[in-house]
UniProtKB/TrEMBL annotation:
PROSITE patterns registered for this protein in UniProt: ABC_TRANSPORTER_1, ABC_TRANSPORTER_2
Protein name as catalogued: Glycine betaine/L-proline ABC transporter ATP-binding protein
ABC transporter domain boundaries: 48-284
Coiled-coil region: none
Keyword Nucleotide-binding: yes
Source species: Streptomyces massasporeus
Domain of life, per lineage: Bacteria
Amino acid sequence: MTPATTEAPRRNTPQDPAPTPVISVRDLWKVFGPKADRVPASEELRGLTRLELLDRTGCTAAVRDVSFDVAPGEVFVVMGLSGSGKSTLVRCLTRLIEPTAGEIVFEGEDIRGADEKRLRELRRSKFSMVFQHFGLLPHRRVVDNVAFGLEIRGMSRSERTRRALEVVELVGLSGYENSYPDQLSGGMQQRVGLARALAGDPDVLLFDEPFSALDPLIRRDMQNEVVRLHREVGKTMVFITHDLSEALRLGDRILIMRDGGTVQCGTGDELVGAPADDYVRDFVRDVPRGDVLTLRWIMRPAEPDDPLDGPELGPDVVVKEATRAVLAADRPVKVVENGKLLGIVGDEEILTIVAGQEGDA
Ligand SMILES: Nc1ncnc2c1ncn2[C@@H]1O[C@H](COP(=O)(O)OP(=O)(O)OP(=O)(O)O)[C@@H](O)[C@H]1O
């Protein structure tokens, strides 16, 4: 599918208009194995598949030649099947895993050039990580678990307790401040993990499959929680998942990885509307298209005999949200941006998408 416009489809994401990225990654490689450095340096070895490379050199290219930018306030999702390189990629960002080649710039600073002391500072104050396994200290109450990072930073007891109570409330755990982790459900423990990550007021939150151990309903709750927190605190987030619906729910943009490389990076509607290859097409096949595609994807140019006195909607309205208005109007809906008519949408365009959805179900 191509968008019904010559311009690339765009949503009003936080990177609009493009500000300086918080994180900028260029040509990043992480190769595990003997003499790993030679792999990104050799045109020939770079071109091998993961299996061929392993065969020839004994090395695994966990991340191969990945580049992307994360904008301030963006939720950037890294998605892929098990073994595609997601965790390695995200750990390379803070050099928890040492990259083999490439560039990582964080707020203008070359991360690969940072010494150990600077890295510790950055990890303590600028980044926070939330893992699948919460890593809570069992003998500490919720409030003390949340305050733990602040204690390490040397914050006074009264100040860190005040801050911890603030974020405990923010993540919806008021009333449980004095509980111990084993008195809490999995979802609540993950809220403590979230609160702990937020306590230090980092610039970037990194999530490594934080909800994959939770049952589906709690998982959905936690996803909503992340959306709400993001709205309230506006932090830049990098979120790893292997679950497409989670990626679509949370991500402003999604990077799809396969065998260490990038298959496609784009907004949810770009992945669903214009999958880069069969791999992505397969991934998004069951996504209800009306939930993701926007009017920009389904509008058609106005013909001379089309009535142009119908209602107006913006191009970034999701089809599902426009369905009622389009079907109720006895004139095609005009898709208008900044006063300019981009196209029109009538019952037919809407029904094609909705019917397609029913066909897929
Ligand atoms: N320390 C290591 N030594 C050798 N190979 C490794 C190492 N860590 C990861 N790998 C390999 O790198 C590849 C990517 O692993 P990674 O854990 O980043 O993938 P992932 O997408 O996060 O997978 P999962 O969803 O299962 O966590 C895999 O083939 C893995 O076996």
